[in-house]
Amino acid sequence: MRRWMIAGNWKMHNNKSEAVLLAKAIKEGTQGISGGDVVLAPPFTALQSVYETIVDSHVLLAAQNMYYEDKGAFTGEISPSMLKDIGCTYVIIGHSERRKYFHETDEAVNQKVKKSLATGIKPIVCVGETEDERNKGVTEFVVGVQVKKALYGIDNINEIVIAYEPVWAIGTGKNATPAEAEEVHRFIRNIIGDIYGEVCNNTRVLYGGSVTSDNIGELINMEDIDGALVGGASLKSEGFIGIIKKASEKK
């Protein structure tokens, strides 16, 4: 059985002191929960402070982005070796906000995935369709292209987490029904199965998009949904802890 994962993407929220308080509350509120992984992705400025708060605990650290070079004249960028040095286990790659606002391409996502793996950081690779694409009935085409291009030339699939985040459900209060989410998760799992065979059986696929403690129970108990990449609801400790506790009850 695959381990569940609940990852909190704090986006551009929380200064250092706020991040430490939130991380401490989540760490303390989820002690004793087992069978899965709790991951926090604070902004770059709080990574070190959050790491010092959660070090040697069950909570893992993630970055929200990275560049695909080790070093160089790339003003404003962060390398994977820098993230590893600061204690990151995971890095989020290809989030729809990166694709939309910063014009991140499928090719750039692939380069970042390859580099993160080479550096020893596990990527959480985001894929998902817009509302217009869903309405046009091209969800599987869009998501399929994103998955295949992200994984191009990569062998160690079980070091990768895929996060299906329908763009129309991120921060909107809308969310895919459990059945709709499961359909796309199964499609993604079939794609990686076609590429990698049975070796991919432990690859985790998460759902993201207006996840709350009210809807995670139904989502997590779908066969092909292994957890969630949580945005807004990860900014309040009580709600995020509630999501984690319900995920830990996955049947």
Structure, explained:
The protein has 251 residues and is an alpha/beta fold. The chain is built from 10 helices and 8 strands. The protein has an 8-stranded parallel β-sheet with strand order 7-6-5-4-3-2-1-8. Helix 3 (80-85) links the parallel strand 3 and strand 4. Helix 1 packs parallel to helix 2 and helix 7 packs across helix 8. The longest helix has 19 residues, at 178-196. The radius of gyration is 17 Å and the shape is globular. The model has no long low-confidence stretch (mean pLDDT 95).
Shape: globular
CATH topology: TIM Barrel
> What is the annotated CATH architecture?
Alpha-Beta Barrel
- Write down the secondary-structure element order: EHEHEHEHHEHHEHEHEH
Q: What is the C-level CATH assignment? A: Alpha Beta
Q: Summarize the main sheet.
A: 8 strands, parallel
Annotation field: number of helices: 10
Distance between the termini: 10 Å
CATH superfamily: Aldolase class I
Task: Let me know the number of strands.
Answer: 8
Which secondary-structure class do the elements indicate?
A: alpha/beta
Q: Which bin fits the share of residues in helices?
A: 25-40%
